[in-house]
Amino acid sequence: MPAKRGETANRILIAARALVKAKGPDQLTFDAVAAEVGVSKQAVLYWFPNKARLIEALVRPALEAESNAGKVAIASQTSASEAIRAYISALAVFHSSDLERFRLMYVTPQIGQRPGRDGTMLTTLGRIHPSTTEMYDALGDKLVEYKRYDRLIDARRAAAAIHTALLGLILRMAMSDALNSPTRSRDDALVDALVNVMAPKAA
N or C, fewer C-beta in 10 Å, the chain? Predict the structure, then answer.
């Protein structure tokens, strides 16, 4: 893909986002995007030579924003439990405030891709995005610093597991929201329950 993105590329991303929102991620095709923008399919392929690159460009800003929200939340915490609680709470607010963005980040990239061998929820191109890795490392550092884990690799796995558990709850919210389910009102209680399981308050 050319290094400098032009106006056409930005119009393509806007159209792709609108298509996902209106018709669902399975309707995101080069033909549909080209028709929406009013350009040829080859013009779309010039900027995004395959679907994985298009999806990566769509979700990268949101993944970076999510990572920043997690890192900011834990930066000033002074215990492992406080860091975990802040991490879950901040990401819950980040995602529940914009469920369309969540769908774009964690549902759209799964269309037409195989799941990871370890069962984790992948982002684009069949790998964890570098910004997400940075977020896991930041929480992992806190968990080692405050003696929750001895090894960074174990602490980082814990950070990934906590994040994946929260994403499961957010997926439930997104499904309830799409179906106008009355269970939506219980979502905050479920997030609180996850916080208390992962980092129970001292008695």
Answer: C
Question: Could you give the CA distance from residue 62 to residue 102 in angstroms, rounded to a whole number?
Answer: 8
User: For the residues 114-120, what does the mean pLDDT come to?
Assistant: 45
Tell me how crowded residue 95 is: count the other CB atoms within 10 A of its CB: 24
pLDDT digits (tens, 9 = 90+) for 10-31: 999 999 999 988 887 778 899 9
Taking the C-alpha atoms of residue 39 and residue 31, their distance in angstroms, rounded to an integer, is 10
The conformational region for residue 19 under phi > 0 = left, psi -120 to 50 = alpha, else beta, is alpha
CA distances from 148 to 136, 138, 164, 192 (A): 15, 14, 19, 21
Amino acid 6: pLDDT: 81
- What is the SS3 assignment for 149-192? CCCHHHHHHHHHHHHHHHHHHHHHHHHHHHHCCHHHHHHHHHHH
3-class DSSP assignment, residue 2: coil
Mean pLDDT taken over the chain: 85
- The CATH superfamily of 1-49 is Homeodomain-like (1.10.10.60)
DSSP letter for each residue of 91-107: HHHHHHT-HHHHHHHHT
